[in-house]
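for the recovery benchmark. tokens below, seq after
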């Protein structure tokens, strides 16, 4: 299963309701994660642009989109972002494949610069 980082900012109306009747956000999103075939790994309140962050394990991007759309369409969030996560091992594996994969990509820049970049990767 894949992990996704969800970040959200509550509306003032949502904060007002939560202050009046405090409850765990985990209790609100865990049933949704389960309905999408996943589970909640962690939830944190945050200070800054986002008010809450969650790491949720879901089967795939379609399940993550379903989760995100359900939360975003609920009306409690003023902002909501989804970020797919890679383990360090997955990221390192992807980096190791770049040299070979780059041979099959022609970037939309001056070809002389592209050739110099390819030569730098080979070195």
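predicted aa per position
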């Amino acid at each position: 299963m894949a992990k996704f980082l969800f970040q959200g900012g509550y509306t003032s109306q949502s904060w007002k309701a939560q202050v009046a009747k405090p409850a765990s956000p985990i209790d609100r999103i865990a049933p949704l994660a389960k309905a999408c075939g996943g589970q909640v790994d962690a939830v944190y309140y945050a200070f800054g642009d986002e008010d809450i962050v969650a790491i949720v394990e879901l089967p795939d991007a379609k399940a993550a989109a379903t989760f995100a759309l359900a939360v975003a369409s609920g009306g409690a969030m003023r902002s909501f972002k989804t970020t797919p996560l890679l383990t360090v091992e997955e990221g390192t594996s992807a980096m190791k494949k770049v040299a070979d994969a780059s041979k099959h990509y022609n970037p939309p820049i001056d070809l002389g610069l592209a050739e110099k970049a390819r030569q730098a990767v080979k070195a």
